[in-house]
Amino acid sequence: MTVSVFVGASVDGFIARANGDLDFLAAGGGEPHGYEEFIAGVDALVIGRKTFETVLAFPVWPYGDKRVVVLSSRPIDLSAVRGGVVEQMAGPPAEIVAELAASGAHHLYVDGGVTIQGFLRAGLVQRLIITRVPVLIGEGIPLFGALPRDLRLRHVATQHYPSGLVKSEYEVVA
Ligand SMILES: NC(=O)c1ccc[n+]([C@@H]2O[C@H](COP(=O)([O-])OP(=O)(O)OC[C@H]3O[C@@H](n4cnc5c(N)ncnc54)[C@H](OP(=O)(O)O)[C@@H]3O)[C@@H](O)[C@H]2O)c1
Asked: Which residue's CA is the closest to the ligand 1 atom numbered 45?
């Protein structure tokens, strides 16, 4: 199983404003920077409840017919999702990964700040692809948080784009 993160963040490390606003990210994700290619290779997304609430408010369900697992410790109403393949899970990240592996998934895409942090703390993320948006927003919802120990990263590649996006890929070494 491979667990990847593909996320956009301000240069000061925020994935959304404190109120959840994504206005500082370019509309539609900005110029193409590999998202379509990345998501095509993913078997399932694992997203936090707050990210789910954000995408549910989009005019169109953004994940097509890709399997989406929403994490929440309480029951959530998935009936508002039109045309998507959505289920709910909860529990320790290791159990979620094991359950998804047992159901045939090989590549998971984990998204949402708190959710990403939980999988990182559990040592379950192998690949980080972070696209820095050239802006400082001062405060907001952070991409990263506390860790029980350092996680060493191996830099794989960095690409920059005319709009100022800088995409870096890292492998988690251990
Ligand atoms: N810039 C980007 O690329 C990007 C990407 C994704 C999201 N975002 C933005 O980030 C914001 C959301 O991030 P966030 O850090 O606030 O929250 P989040 O990670 O989306 O959701 C956190 C919630 O997920 C649930 N959860 C996470 N791990 C769980 C587990 N192992 N078991 C059970 N439940 C679990 C909990 O829900 P309960 O409280 O219901 O138990 C938790 O409160 C939104 O504004 C979204 O738009 C931005």
From this structure: 20
User: Which atom, in ligand 1's list, is nearest to the CA of 91?
Assistant: 32
Domain range enclosing 109: 2-172
CA of 111 relative to ligand 1 center, distance in Å = 7
| Interval 146-167: pLDDT, tens | 999 999 999 999 999 999 999 9
Beta strand pairing call for 2-10 and 107-111 = parallel
Q: What percent of the chain has pLDDT over 70?
A: 100
How many domains are there within the chain? Answer: 1
Residue from 10, 55, 72, 143 to probe ligand 1 pocket by mutation (most atoms less than 8 Å from CB)? 72
**pTM for the model:** 0.98
CATH code for position 7: 3.40.430.10
